[in-house]
Write a structure and sequence with these properties.
64% of the residues lie in helices and 0% in strands. The protein has 157 residues and is an all-alpha fold.
Length: 157
Amino acid sequence: MATSPQRRIDVAGLVIAIVLLVLAGVVWWDMSKLQILSPYDLGPKVMPIIVSGGLTLLAIGNGISAFRGDLPVRDSLDWKPIILILGALACLIALIRFGGGFMIGTALLFAATSTAFGRRAFVTDFIIGAVIALIVYVLFAKLLTLSLPAGPLERLF
């Protein structure tokens, strides 16, 4: 009689399933606090219900796969891109907080993110990010009249 290989429960998959279920509960709870009523029963509560249901289905599917041991083997984690993106995000927050402005921080974040994804043209990516940040700033600040954090470049407009 052949023995079947022992299946191991994927603990990380179970944790992900639990986090998805908790997130679905938070979305549902937040939706239940809405006081907006719609005459046709299709108001702002519909989309959170759909999202919560989808998260619940994902949690159930992930939990079943974790118990069966059917989840794919995960690759090892490369910390360099994560640290690079989080560092650039921290720089963006610091630049906004200390008056560096939106455009410089956004250009830096764009260039660091592209570097984290393997592109090696930091100066070119910084310029591309600056152009995108300029377009976003002009659209938000001038067209929509919404204020974004001002720095030295934003004061030129």
